[in-house]
């Protein structure tokens, strides 16, 4: 297992499946500007160009599907009344890819649209025929191979974003955040220490019912000796991202995935634009992919290659490379 970008493709081996990966495109038709904390410059128009380049490369390489890890458009679109236009341009670019694109939702989607609106949009993948999605929910799963399942979380099921203020989910999120963050600006982590820096409005949580759903999938996968990739916008392992970007209830999510580490291969996230990675004590690889919107490179994406015994993630441009061993070989009978 390599977290240092030294991964090479297996010479002479044909990948069973190829997966495109991109995070935090945050496209907007506005001039470049710094982030909220004035520490990192964002290239909003260039981000769409980078997405288009990724689609061209994935198509040429005959990639099978794409994981879009959230924040595909930026919150500034809401201020410009350009949410639908921006989403249309992103969707148009992604539709040039001939295979399925599986979306997660981030905070920036929720600055532009309600969760109810997103379920009716092109950014909801749970209604694809190959996906299993609980009725009325926005988290789902699908199989890439008979020995590899992907579970997609809604990290903002409990949130102060994209939900009515009188909804139970909003109220729970508000109580969690305000109970741990005394500041007037609930997006400012200054003064918060350690993992308490996560108690911010731009983060969310997953419900007990979603955790139970995840646990049921992992229990079944373990029994059937099926590998699992879990993905969501927010990181869940504190060593894989800056603490202010963690899922609000990341300890609960970590408890579940580590309990079933026998089947979980990796957890894939975005949200933290610097990116990061680490392997937890149970051997699960956690990768936080960097924000494409802040890339200085001419490319900013990854392609994952599934082999019989391993998953190789090959980064391009600002994305690093990783490799992890599958829990169960694909050719196992």
TrEMBL record:
Cross-referenced SUPFAM superfamilies: Metallo-dependent phosphatases (SSF56300)
Domain Calcineurin-like phosphoesterase stretches: 18-274
Coiled-coil portions: none
A molecular function GO annotation: 2',3'-cyclic-nucleotide 2'-phosphodiesterase activity
Species name: Mizuhopecten yessoensis (Japanese scallop)
Source species, domain of life: Eukaryota
Name this polypeptide is given: Manganese-dependent ADP-ribose/CDP-alcohol diphosphatase
Pfam families found in the cross-reference section: Metallophos
Family annotation (InterPro entries): Calcineurin-like_PHP, Metallo-depent_PP-like
